[in-house]
Design brief:
There is one protein chain. The protein has helices at about 5-10, 45-60, 80-90, 105-115, 130-140, 145-155, 175-185, 210-225, 285-295, 295-305, 315-320, 325-330; strands at about 15-20, 65-70, 90-95, 120-125, 160-165, 190-195, 235, 255-260, 265, 345, 350. Helix 4 (about 105-115) packs parallel to helix 6. Helices cover about 35% and strands about 15% of the residues. The protein has one domain (about 5-295): Alpha-Beta Barrel (TIM Barrel), CATH 3.20.20. It is of the alpha/beta class and about 350 residues long. The structure holds S-adenosylmethionine (SAM) and iron/sulfur cluster (2 copies). One iron/sulfur cluster binds near residues 237, 238 and 325. GO terms for molecular function: 4 iron, 4 sulfur cluster binding; catalytic activity; metal ion binding. This is Radical SAM core domain-containing protein.
Length: about 350
């Protein structure tokens, strides 16, 4: 039951999306992994807890349920979770996967077969490059590219709604155009580029971060691609707003979504997974308590109302809206510094910070 008190907060900040990392186990060891997942991962949310979370989320108005990890297909109850979420009324249930579930192609196919016959609405595979060597170098596992491609091909054949995610980094950004063409060839609907967050295992691999010079080339690449005519849609999310690529989306952290990690920690979105620790925990509070009382969520909401000091004289602020709060929080935990990716225009000329 949503009481009138709750309704007031939910009217202003309607919680719509829930991202849950159900396990931190994974058979890959990606150099950039924000979850620091790996074969020895032991954290997982059990089915009973997921049911409680889905029930409360549904009552609060969530209709978009996203299952991530680690590798979620390694969780023994993942199919029951999908089924329960759909039965409970979630309109869109999405699952993230690296395509390398186990090191056995036949076992993977069996898992994907089960997924294809489930009520899952969308599957998002991570493909880090069109070049097998670069993909495997990033994942740390030789042969993982072949598994990812086979998984994508299988899902497309089964008419699943398939998307690909890629994180542009120093190793792979030059292969983005060929990755887009590969996605087209594979029949992928959308290629989304995620912005690298310096957290988790990425902190041990600082060479992944693009230099200013590389960032300029990346920007040129995207500027060329965005006017091309591809069957696969190229999407860049809100974290790239401050690159001024003329595609602006709204950051929704603290406005309509929550992320829960495998140990139960609660975050405004994936970009806060390291910097906002120690975090509130779903084993100690309800989703609504977090949504209505968490100081970081309120700071994020209030920060959007104010023009932060670092950006207040910038003529482009209306477009980028100050960049990605998660990236700013990484710098000083106070949102007072500029987004480190900030490009801004002075007298119409682009400047790099
Ligand atoms: C954490 S993974 C979990 C799901 C699955 N194992 C996979 O790799 O798709 C979800 C997505 O986050 C991306 N990711 C991981 N670490 C990241 C980081 N430090 N910054 C940005 N994205 C990251 C991955 O590349 C992947 O596309
Ligand atoms: S990014 Fe995904 S595939 Fe890579 S180690 Fe992390 S959880 Fe595993
Ligand atoms: S804080 Fe950054 S990563 Fe998180 S939703 Fe906003 S723009 Fe996206």
């Amino acid at each position: 039951m949503v009481t009138p008190d709750k309704r007031l907060i939910l009217n202003k900040y309607p919680l719509k999306e829930l991202f849950v990392e159900i396990t931190d186990k994974c058979n890959l060891l990606c150099k950039h992994c924000s979850t620091e997942a790996g074969p020895t991962g032991e954290q997982q949310l059990n089915f009973k807890k997921i049911v409680e979370i889905i029930d409360e989320a549904y009552n609060l108005g969530v209709r978009y349920f996203c299952i991530s990890g680690g590798e979620p297909l390694l969780h023994p109850d993942v199919f029951e979770m999908i089924e329960y979420a759909k039965k409970r009324g979630m309109k869109k249930v999405t699952l993230y996967s690296c395509g390398y579930i186990t090191g056995n192609l036949q076992k993977n196919k069996t898992l994907l077969e089960r997924l294809a016959s489930s009520k899952l609405d969308r599957i998002i595979f991570s493909l880090h490059s069109s070049d097998p060597m670069i993909h495997d170098q990033i994942t740390g596992i030789k042969g993982s590219y072949e598994f990812a491609i086979k998984a994508i091909q299988y899902a497309v054949t089964k008419k699943m709604k398939v998307e690909v995610h890629c994180v542009p980094m120093s190793y792979n950004f030059k292969t983005i155009p060929s990755l887009l063409r590969l996605c087209e060839k594979l029949g992928v609907e959308q290629l989304s580029l995620l912005r690298l967050v310096k957290q988790g295992r990425c902190m041990d691999n600082p060479d992944l971060v693009m230099s200013k010079r590389q960032l300029n080339v990346f920007r040129e690449i995207i500027n060329k691609l965005k006017n091309g005519n591809y069957k696969t849609r190229l999407r860049l999310g809100a974290p790239f707003n401050c690159l001024f690529l003329d595609r602006y989306t709204k950051c929704t952290a603290a406005l309509c979504k929550i992320l829960i990690s495998a140990d139960g920690s609660l975050f405004p979105c994936e970009a806060f997974k390291t910097s906002a620790r120690p975090a509130p925990n779903i084993y100690k509070m309800s989703l609504f308590e977090y949504w209505s009382k968490d100081p970081l969520l309120w700071k994020l909401r209030e920060d959007r109302q104010k023009i932060t000091k670092a950006c207040k004289d910038c003529e482009s602020l209306e477009k980028c809206r100050g960049g990605c709060p998660g990236q700013r929080y990484l710098i000083d935990k106070n949102f007072t510094k500029k987004d480190p990716l900030c490009y801004w225009k002075v007298n119409g000329v682009e400047k790099v910070v």
